[in-house]
Predict the structure.
Amino acid sequence: MKRREFITVLGGAATWPLAARAQQPAKVAQIGFLGPAPAATYLPRLEALRAGLRDLGYVEGKNIAIEFRWAERVEQLPEMAAELVRMKVDIILASSSTYVEAARQATKTIPIVFALHADPVGVGHVASLARPGGNITGLSTLLTDLAPKELEILKEALPQTTRIGILWNPTTPSHGPAVRAVEAAGQKLGVQLLLVPARSVEEFDGAFSTMTRERMGSLLVIGSPLAFSQRVPLAELALKHRLPGMFQSRENVEAGGLMSYGVDYNDLHRRAALYIDKILKGVKPADLPVEQASKYELIINLKTANTLGLAIPESLLLRADKVIE
């Protein structure tokens, strides 16, 4: 081979890796998602997350992919979280404390983002809101503040009520601190509380029978993935046992519950996309402060109130963000 030809071939070869790199598709970020089954109950929040990702330039199948794992029971979560870790996803989105705990046990290195953690400091998932530390961060609703406020509003709506059933889930990590906060609020309000645990939808019937037998005048359901995903049977049982109920999400009221006081959970999921974006761009979860929800909404189902023969105070109706008639 002549010298000039050899140099030309060598020069061309030097460009091959550059050309190959230019032709390679952009890396697709893998997001592992842990959520409550049935998946259909979660679609509005999921669409809010997707909308937030789209606003930031992420397109599923092009530069981001979401691996979904929907748990029917808490016992399924450890293996689901471990599976996502084995897949080496870039981030795990674990919506609330129940799912964060499973993810935390599965990995100390993969970033974990939560969308509506009820008490991240209280259950030890972050060191502080300002400096989370570790590999976990996201958005919080602070259930220890929210649940007592719900009890206060329920008492305002039903001033004659002196005995209130508290339906809670022992498998939800944030419920321990929340129950203690509700008990303290009950003492200040001068009401008698009956703590009734329910770990699954199969335990709902027994829980409501207990509250009826103990002559509870109303019901506070502490917010959890179970209370959200099983909102229809919860509303039906509350009506069947004629127990006016306070819930945490508007979806529970739309399903037939009496009232709810909580945040816009769709908005929190949309905002979770910002955390995903920052982490994918290199920011460490330890350096991303936990954001607290700032806007709360009161929803009242007047149709349910009429069915139960209740007269909701006009002052409360005027404060409601939405009244379902």
User: Anything to note?
Assistant: The first strand starts at residue 29 and ends at 36. DSSP finds 13 helices and 13 strands in the chain. Confidence is low (pLDDT under 50) at residues 1-24. The first helix runs from residue 3 to 23.
